Amino acid sequence: MAMPSVAEKNVEQEQENATEDSSFEETQSELRQNDFVDQFPEFRTCPSEALAPIRYQPLLGADGEPIRIYSDEASRENDMAYLTGNVRVSQNQQQLTADRLIANNKTKSYRAEGDLLFTNQNFVVGAESLDYYSLEGSTSIEDTRFHLYSNNGNGRAENIRVDNKQVLTLSNTDFSTCPEDQKSWVFESDEIVIDRDSGWGKAYNSVVKIADIPVFYLPYITFPVDDRRKTGLLPPSFSNSNRNGRDISAPYYVNLAPNYDLTLTPRYMTSRGSMLGTEFRYLTPQNYGEIFFEYLPNDKAAATSNGETLPDKRWQYDLDHTTRFTDNWSSGIAARKVSDDGYFQDFGGSIEDSNQDILSQNLYVQYLSQDWLMRTEYQDWQLLNSPVERYTIAPRVQLTRFFEPSDNGFEAKVNSEITRFDKDNAVTAERYHVEPSVAWSHETLYSFFRPELSFAYTQYEQTDISGNDQTIDRSLPTLSIDTGLFFERTLNFDDGDMTQTLEPRLFYLYTPYEEQQNIAFYDTSLPTFNFTQLFSRNRFSGIDRIGDANQVSGAITSRFLDEQGREKASVSIGRTVYLKDRKVTMLNLPVETDKQSGLLAEVNWRWTDSIEVKSAIEWDDQNNETTHGLVNLHYEPEENHILNLGHRYRKTVNRTQEEAELAFAWPMAQDWRLLGRYNQDLTENRTNDSFLGLEYESCCWAVRVVARRYINIQLDSQGALVPDQRDEHSSGVYVQFVLKGIGSLQGSTTKFLEDSIYGYEDLLGK
């Protein structure tokens, strides 16, 4: 007997398709025999992989295809059709299975009852009954259980409505991402609306329960269904410290447009007061950047911070902007500034933050092509906890001409600049500099040879604080010859072949001496001696000093590479031999008469994936002492099993600095991980930074608690205390709590953990 059409008369009867659907019936029978129907057994525990049981997944079909209905038995009466036994209805990648179905061809609707499952690509629902209205494209399901594939969300509801846009509305429902047998937390709500198109859900009049205990009431909350952005309240942050007291912030995200957004972060500290932070991000075809500003209008603790009176109004701004006018023309600004010297000590959160000593403000316009670089910039600095100021560059104009290398290996360029240096109550100057250079490069598979000759002409127009002008000219040629060899051989090991290289390198540098003591220091310093300095053409950074040189630097490196070309280990050793005393010094220091530099050595080792060693040393063999040394060991035998050991040593004329460090992140048992760090200043016998934390993570929730204590003082460039400061430590307890699938209540732990423990990755909530 033919069955009436439910949609456009395109219904097919099961009896006419017995062969086509035999596999489906067999699967249904098997599911019933294993009692799979009513209890969602696959969702009782945290899934280890994507699940695709046949009955819970809809048949694939094209959009707009007709409804197809199958059953064991079917009958009709006027506009009504009655189907019983293994009923299956499918259309547009949606599928319904039930014991009975009553279809009304006049209203193009149907009702299904008994052992009912409704599925699509996003969720599966079990229910007592379902009503579908084809003309409206909506569905109403009574007394339901549901499971969302995207985030393991599941629960029960008195009623679920699905509209024609696939928006789910759940009434009198509970919701959790925990499995049925591990309900660690649950939302009980009057109504939950889940919109897959927007990627967000909304819950009304919700009670959050943890371990069946009501924790708090939420009249309204939004939560993500996927990773897309949406305007709404972000997870708040909680912490407690001796410096700021109880500290809570509640960021609010505003998704203004696909290419720009705004985050407002109200923050309250019981010891200081209320602060507001704002962050605006934008991206257009020509412009992109971020603008950050935070402001504390009345700091209650300012009068007692850092042993000195600070302003009541505390603020910080950070601006990073780039504009691309064309492929060659661009401009940008990068500027950061704070209200006072103690800002980062009060609000920074780590010894690294509290020891930020210089902030820059830079504005530039630039043209860059294959042949030309033209750049105009203005730059100023804010020096924190320093009695001196740095020169403002107001402005600098650079022009560089690059000449394309010739076929025989010659290349040339001309660097030039005009710079104005300005500072209150100090010598000011205009500096004119031009430096043409020519080089030749000859390379083979086993060697390279690169001589380079340059000539630097610099003129200073200096004005002292009395208004007296002085013109200083300086002309200096520089010759360098850089050459090296490359050898390799194959080493045979049981687990594969290795390639060992041997790379000797020599670098000769000659610059004649010229008196430069009358030139002030504007943007020049003496960098730390390292392997890079061995092959530098000027031992000073900046051009206010061009060092006289007649010296030879030599180094030799050996690397071990596996069959994929990955470096497993390397050893380097080098030094500089001075053929002449160095008369050009900083701050009228005596002539340098050493005949050779200290001996530099570096060893890097990663023979296995479990152990990584990085070490470096500068050995003064004239005085038989170490000038600088470090060694870092990273041990990770399995993923997220981390142990780091480190030791650093540096000796200068004024100070010896030595530190030791231990950091770790190690699972203790299933779902538990212990993490911590201990950094000790061995010279001052004080703890710089220490924390101990514990993480617990199940499949649907996680928590991290970290207790931390770190020194919160200003140190000078040598690591010594800035005068007139207390040797003060800050301490606090930080908590991060994650309800997986809906967001997290986060403390300020993630960034400093990833910075403090090399190799650590924050996995909570992922």
Automatic annotation (TrEMBL):
Domain LptD C-terminal: 313-672
UniProt keyword Transmembrane, yes or no: no
Region described as Disordered: 1-34
Pfam families named among the record's database cross-references: LptD, LptD_N
Entry keyword set: Cell outer membrane, Membrane, Signal
Coiled-coil regions, chain positions: none
Feature: compositional bias, Acidic residues: 13-28
Superkingdom assignment: Bacteria
Residue intervals of the Organic solvent tolerance-like N-terminal domain: 73-199
Subcellular location: Cell outer membrane
Membership in a protein family: Belongs to the LptD family.
Assembly and interaction partners: Component of the lipopolysaccharide transport and assembly complex. Interacts with LptE and LptA.
Described purpose of this protein according to its UniProt entry: Together with LptE, is involved in the assembly of lipopolysaccharide (LPS) at the surface of the outer membrane.
Designated name of the protein: LPS-assembly protein LptD
Species assigned in the record: Kangiella japonica
